[in-house]
């Protein structure tokens, strides 16, 4: 059972370009979470999705950021018109449910660098 | 406490020494406390999920305790080995949903 797979591992974008980050959850997991780690900061929650639905996007910037988790295929975190401040490590996690004792399993992250 | 705080930020121990570090979290509306082990260039690895006051969990040489009334958890490592070198993260949250992470304790075990 492969773990949470994220790609690419590293992504370089020029200011104004779009960044697309992909996350394939663990097999059997229908809940996906995106977290961001800015330099010198801890992991910060961005968005929680179930298949085809955004459940909570309270941690995601209102503009330029969007996320989806289609019926088929990976979850995508999309950042339009990237700026230098978007440079960070973006982590995806998945879980089979949201019960009190449920663990979230993390991917290795995508390091986005905006030049 | 409004955020999840971990201390110390980093520590160095000799191989064979036992060590522990602290996670403080908001005690109101507590739901669950997670510990993760994070090695450089790898994904955070789930160690424990703890939900009940007084909970104590163990995995090999690593154990953790939980005090939900006062809002803290301790992680203990007995007989540290070089392979224990990693950053240990704790997170408070509603199960697996919207975890609030501390900044971690970076442990270096010196052979």
What does this entry show, briefly?
The complex is a heterodimer of chains A (115) and B (111). Chain A has 115 residues and is an all-beta fold. Chain A has no helices and eleven strands.
List keywords for this structure.
heterodimer; A: mainly beta; 7-stranded mixed beta sheet; 4-stranded antiparallel beta sheet; 11 strands; 0% helix; 49% strand; B: 111 residues; mainly beta; 6-stranded mixed beta sheet; 5-stranded antiparallel beta sheet; 57% strand
Give me the strand/helix succession of chain A: EEEEEEEEEEE
Q: Over all CA atoms, what is the radius of gyration of chain A?
A: 13 Å
* Overall pLDDT level of chain A: 94
Mean of residue pLDDT of chain B? 93
Strand content of chain A: over 45%
Q: State the shape of chain A.
A: globular
- Alpha-carbon distance between the termini of chain A? 36 Å
Descriptive overview:
The complex is a heterodimer of chains A (115) and B (111). In chain A, the strands form 2 sheets. In chain A, strands 2, 4, 5, 6, 9, 10 and 11 form a 7-stranded mixed β-sheet that branches. Chain A is globular. Chain A has no helices and 11 strands. In chain A, strand 7 and strand 8 form a beta hairpin. The model of chain A has no long low-confidence stretch (mean pLDDT 94). Helix content of chain A is 0%, strand content 49%. By secondary structure, chain B is an all-beta fold. Chain B is built from no helices and 11 strands. Chain B has strands spanning 5-7, 10-14, 19-24, 32-38, 45-50, 56-59, 62-67, 72-77, 86-94, 97-101, 105-110. In chain B, the strands form 2 sheets. In chain B, strands 2, 4, 5, 9, 10 and 11 form a 6-stranded mixed β-sheet that branches. The A-B interface holds A 3-4, 31, 33, 35, 41-45, 48, 56, 58-59, 91, 93, 95, 97-109 and B 4, 31-32, 34, 36, 41-46, 49, 51, 89, 91, 94-104.
């Amino acid at each position: 059972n492969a773990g949470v797979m994220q790609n690419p591992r590293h992504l370089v974008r020029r200011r104004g370009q779009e960044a697309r980050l992909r996350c394939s959850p663990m097999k059997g997991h229908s809940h996906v979470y995106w977290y961001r780690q800015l330099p010198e900061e801890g992991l910060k929650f961005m968005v929680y999705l179930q298949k085809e639905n955004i459940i909570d996007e309270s941690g995601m910037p209102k503009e330029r950021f969007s996320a989806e988790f289609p019926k088929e295929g990976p979850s995508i975190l999309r950042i339009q018109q990237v700026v230098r401040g978007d440079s960070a490590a973006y982590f995806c996690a998945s879980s089979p449910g949201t019960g009190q004792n449920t663990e979230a399993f993390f991917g290795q992250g995508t390091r986005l660098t905006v030049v | 406490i409004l955020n999840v705080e971990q201390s110390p930020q980093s520590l160095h121990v000799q191989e064979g020494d036992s060590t522990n570090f602290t996670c403080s979290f908001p005690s109101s509306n507590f739901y669950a406390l997670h510990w993760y082990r994070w090695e450089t260039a790898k994904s955070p690895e789930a160690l424990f999920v703890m939900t009940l006051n007084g909970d104590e969990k163990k995995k090999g040489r690593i154990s953790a305790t939980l005090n939900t009334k006062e809002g803290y958890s301790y992680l203990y490592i007995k007989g540290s080995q070089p392979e224990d070198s990693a950053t240990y993260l704790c997170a408070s949250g509603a199960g697996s949903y919207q975890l609030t992470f501390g900044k971690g304790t970076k442990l270096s075990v010196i052979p």
